[in-house]
IclR family transcriptional regulator (Micromonospora gifhornensis), 530 residues
Amino acid sequence: MDAQPGRSVTSKVLALLDAFTPATPALTLTELARRAGLPLPTAHRRAAELVAWGALERGDDGRYRIGLRLWEVGSLAPRGLGLRELALPIMEDLYEVTHENVQLAVRQGLELVFIERIAGRHAVPVLTRVGGRFALHATGVGLVLLAYAPAEVQEQVLAAPLERYTELTITDPRRLRRCLAEVRRVGYAVSDRQVTMDALSVAAPIRGSDGVVAAISLVVAHDRADPLALAPLVQAAGRVLSRALGTSYRRSPGRVPSPTRSETQ
Amino acid sequence: MDAQPGRSVTSKVLALLDAFTPATPALTLTELARRAGLPLPTAHRRAAELVAWGALERGDDGRYRIGLRLWEVGSLAPRGLGLRELALPIMEDLYEVTHENVQLAVRQGLELVFIERIAGRHAVPVLTRVGGRFALHATGVGLVLLAYAPAEVQEQVLAAPLERYTELTITDPRRLRRCLAEVRRVGYAVSDRQVTMDALSVAAPIRGSDGVVAAISLVVAHDRADPLALAPLVQAAGRVLSRALGTSYRRSPGRVPSPTRSETQ
């Protein structure tokens, strides 16, 4: 029986997509039905439609996975690949001069989503997953995105329990509020061993036509980090990217334009 | 009135997503309804559900765009970001030693989809869009993917008209058939000014447990290209990546595993 018989078909289809997470990227039909809260026959019928369209793919092992067609459509999200395409050359510049990890993130509700990262081969290990989520109150990019978020977003984050990742994670709402004010004052954020005890990140805002739309950061080994030296580099990258976004805004009414379709080799 | 009243709700929801293309990433409700073949009220109701979930976003300009949540779910596609995460370090190596354009593509039906590219700053311009599609018979990666595709795929491509991009594009099915046999014999493909008159690409296959799953290429300026010197480089990258995929196959039943979720900074 359908756990929620009043649900719309659209919500059932979307529940099937929600069943897939980074921890569960491949699901049997039984797992899929259970996670989506659908009876097995309903899940089977809807999943078959999604497979036919390409939103799901079914492997030789019988498991369902997210299909390439959904990735293709998802790549049209202006805040995803559109932003990433604009940012990548600037991220590459930052990587060339530092050989450290470079990250790009946007806020999605009360969390952040990593849009891109360049992992330094000999830099401190950061195992960020592009498309992965994280809390706002601990990382450099998160502190920037939170510092410039609408007041109601800040209040919601400050009102909820703040997860502790290390002994240096800020979990006191009053301290976090002061930290955010400082981020706005200096124009960058430093997360010093607030996520892992070996790493420090320095992040700066990227501004669009309606405020801060993304954040860029360098993540370096804590013991060789000089935040005061890194901050101008990251801020400069943020400014170049803000200007690139501004130019795009004048060309297009979109929040972040997609690159134009063009010839290829 | 619904143009096709017998359509399932799932197909209507998917038709709304299909309406968005690289050329039309932002749509008004009227455009969306027309492209999806749905009556305005139906399109409005379904679009509202998609916005609530995050599959679509509606801007200040009233237009709909693909939402970040869909990009997030799409990022779980094993043949998309999963493959890309495995390939990126190897693509970066290839870029470091050549400073030329590096591309990664998979076959989707009778076309290819670009999964990743590193654009050389001073290399010949290639304006590939990640997530973008292209024909199989012209590019280096396309020739590789076609050469190793199932026979029925080859026959379908050979039976259809072959679009001419330059005077050197192979549009004769018999010549293309001979070219594909040569690709299989030598283990790499060269596309010499077959897409644009200034560029040459050299591509090699990436093998998974069930044959060739992707292709990697270097795209260089035609006038300074030495395909015989580039081929071993690209082939070596393809082999390293095939081995990386093989290792992953033993760990996971998936076609291409997603990277594990892990801590981040």
